[in-house]
Design brief:
six-stranded antiparallel beta barrel; alpha/beta; Elongation Factor Tu (Ef-tu), domain 3; 322 residues; Rossmann fold; disordered N terminus; 2 domains
């Protein structure tokens, strides 16, 4: 299937091979857009303005996996957003189309010249390109703003960059937001993201330990190589119905059969007895309660979970959220 609808929004193009003639003629931006934060939103506004000026669709080109996740997985930064969340956020911000390119050996070996011609010129028929001031592309990151300007002169498309957006004298960036999340500063992260930090995922079957302890949890595969938060948190869980419920969540890693650590989120929804299996939940992080710990016994674990629940209830009551 060449294109996929997300929430009845404009279209997602999966892969260079799915770019069709109808996609030719557009205003384009490129990047990782992890978090779709206020800095990214400035780029998006500029893109939308140019698209209106040229009367063509706006297109955001993103990469999956993100380049560092392919080139150096161990050194890759934690993701603020999983792929699904990112696409939805870009479309919600007003982007007409999202073009997701698989980042692999073939794509990473393209020179900046080949990348420009294959994707921007012959693929999307770019009329104008807007990039962040730190974006690089092509083999060994050869392509930069000046290179793109020269290509624009050659092929007849305009180019503009977007100056860094700052708040309180500091640059708004995905790196800064990851640091805030690691420090559990969810208020400041929300200011830079322009929205609360959330994770979403579909509830699957875990090892049923929580149920055996009388404290059932919803287990969410959060589909990230790394998670920007670790530990135990007071959270809000939004159900598909829109109902928002208080909960306690643990975010950590669980080894897979091949020995690779796999991030997982387990949420115990307070005062809830329904069946959540198969449902897509959104988890908003409110307050960190503690770091992850290992326990000597199941009993010790159960006692700590009960303490976590009481601490979370106190937080929600103090903030009139429970």
């Amino acid at each position: 299937m060449a294109e996929t609808q997300i929430n009845h929004a404009p279209k997602l193009i999966r892969g260079l091979h799915n770019i069709r003639d109808i996609h030719h003629g557009s205003v384009v931006t490129l990047g990782s857009f992890d978090g779709v934060h206020l800095g990214h939103q400035r780029v998006i506004k500029q893109l939308k303005d140019k698209a209106a000026e040229y009367s063509v669709p706006s297109v955001a080109v993103i990469f999956e996996p993100q380049p560092m996740e392919f080139l150096s997985p161990q050194a890759a930064p934690a993701r603020i957003m999983r792929f699904r969340e990112k696409v939805r956020a870009l479309l919600d911000a007003g982007i007409d189309r999202v073009c997701c390119l698989e980042f692999n050996n073939k794509l990473s070996s393209l020179s900046a010249q080949e990348f420009c011609e294959k994707i921007l010129v012959h693929g999307l028929g770019a009329r104008f390109v807007v990039i962040g001031d730190d974006f690089r592309f092509g083999q060994d990151r050869q392509g930069d703003f000046e290179f793109l300007q020269a290509q624009g002169t050659k092929w007849g498309f305009g180019v503009a960059d977007t100056n860094t957006l700052e708040q309180n004298g500091e640059r708004i960036s995905s790196t800064r937001i990851r640091h805030l999340l690691a420090e559990a500063d969810f208020d400041e992260a929300r200011h830079l993201l322009g929205k609360p930090f959330t994770m979403s995922g579909r509830v699957g079957y875990g090892n049923q330990l929580g149920r055996k302890l009388g404290l059932p949890t919803a287990n969410l595969a959060i589909r990230r190589y790394k998670t920007p938060v670790r530990g135990v948190f007071a959270v809000h869980v939004t159900l598909p119905s829109g109902e928002v419920l208080p909960a306690v969540a643990n975010v950590g890693v669980r080894p897979t059969v091949d020995g690779i650590a796999k991030p997982i989120l387990e949420a115990h929804v307070l005062n809830f007895a329904g069946d959540l299996y198969g449902q897509m939940l959104t988890v908003e992080f409110c307050k960190k309660l503690r770091d992850e710990s290992k326990f000597e016994s199941i009993t010790a674990l159960q006692q700590q979970i009960l303490k976590d629940i009481e601490q979370a209830k106190d937080y929600f009551k103090e903030n009139s959220l429970f």
